[in-house]
Specification:
With about 300 residues, this protein is of the alpha+beta class. Helices cover about 30% and strands about 20% of the residues. It has helices spanning about 15-25, 30-45, 85-95, 105-115, 125-140, 220-225, 230-235, 240-255, and strands at about 5-10, 65-70, 75-80, 100-105, 165-170, 180-185, 205-210, 210-220, 265-270, 275-280, 285-290, 295-300. The structure holds N-hydroxy-L-asparagine.
């Protein structure tokens, strides 16, 4: 529906990302441009979990996952992409300039370079280097709820968000066009080649312009197994509010996991075609950033396990 623009994104990193998106949405720009520019802000920040400053896989290599989807069922995705600063832009280029939806690993990097994206040094950020050395002491793969590695990354960037994670963003522009994006370095110290939900259309992100959009963060494997973002959109299609749809999807994951639900975090954000938003998490601690003006507001999400 035509009206005021809205942007919703995951975690506190979403505040800066939303500001980036609003520069485009505020003056009447296109939602797709906004969700790309928005998460590019986070990709460029030094953080544990998004972009080249992120924590590496267990072999010490940073591999990035990202995707984007517009208001006409077009989508693009890259997974296990190395040494490229803005994976979301590579995903968009793939969507717009090729007949394909998804490229992975060396092929994704080859495409990016051919499109003029710079091949960055393979070097880890200082924080990631420290976290990786710490992790190597035990080499245990145990994701920490909410922030897979806040304990190993206590010192965030100066002035930057300390607590952030995968960024997913959904936007509707003044003309009522919906778009979404998602970008991450994935779970810290993951197995080499592991791909999470974030670059998988229908799991980490889904946009149906006639219904709404949804995105996920948290333990990607558990989002993939129930087609998370697509499930949220289908629940909205059946008449649920964005909030109720997110809650029902989280409840489904909790039912699938049973007693193990307490060991993971998953969360969804949603935005319907009328501009209404919702969010729901499995555990306490998920926050999301919402913009309906140029001043983004951080909200604590409702959650299931009390
Ligand atoms: C993944 N969903 O790779 C992402 C990471 C994330 O909280 O959101 N972590 O599984």
């Amino acid at each position: 529906a035509k009206g005021r623009p809205v942007v919703i994104s995951t975690w506190d990193a979403g505040l800066n990302a939303n500001r980036g998106a609003w520069k485009i949405l505020g003056p009447g720009g296109y939602a797709l441009d906004a969700v790309e520019a928005g998460v590019m802000v986070t990709e460029a920040e030094q953080s544990c979990c998004v972009g080249l400053g992120g924590n590496p896989d267990r072999d010490g290599i940073v591999t990035l996952d990202a995707c984007i989807m517009d208001d006409q069922y077009n989508c693009g995705s890259v997974a296990a992409l190395e040494r490229i600063r803005h994976p979301v832009s590579v995903a968009r280029r793939l969507m717009e300039r090729t007949p394909h939806v998804m490229l992975v690993g060396a092929g994704a990097q080859q495409f990016a370079v051919a499109q003029g994206f710079a091949l960055e040094p393979a070097q880890l950020s200082a924080d990631a280097e420290r976290a990786y050395k710490e992790w190597l002491k035990t080499s245990q793969y145990q994701p920490v709820i909410n922030i897979e590695n806040s304990k190993s990354r206590p010192t965030g960037p100066v002035g930057g968000p300390q607590n952030h994670d995968t960024i997913a963003m959904l936007a509707i522009d003044a003309q009522g066009r919906l778009s979404g994006s998602c970008t991450t370095s994935g779970m810290g110290f993951k197995m080499r080649g592991r791909v999470g939900d974030s670059p998988i259309i229908g799991a980490g992100l889904f946009v149906d312009p006639t219904v709404g959009a949804a995105a996920a963060t948290g333990q990607g494997e558990d989002v993939i197994r129930m087609a998370g973002a697509h499930t949220v959109v289908e629940l909205m299609r059946q008449g649920r509010s964005p909030q109720a749809a997110c809650r029902e999807a989280v409840a489904r994951i909790a039912a699938i996991k049973g007693a193990k639900a307490k060991d993971i975090q998953v969360a969804f954000i949603a935005l319907n075609a009328q501009g209404q938003t919702g969010s729901f998490a499995l555990q306490k601690g998920f926050s999301y950033s919402l913009s309906t003006t140029d001043m983004p507001v951080l909200h604590n999400s409702e959650f299931l396990l009390k």
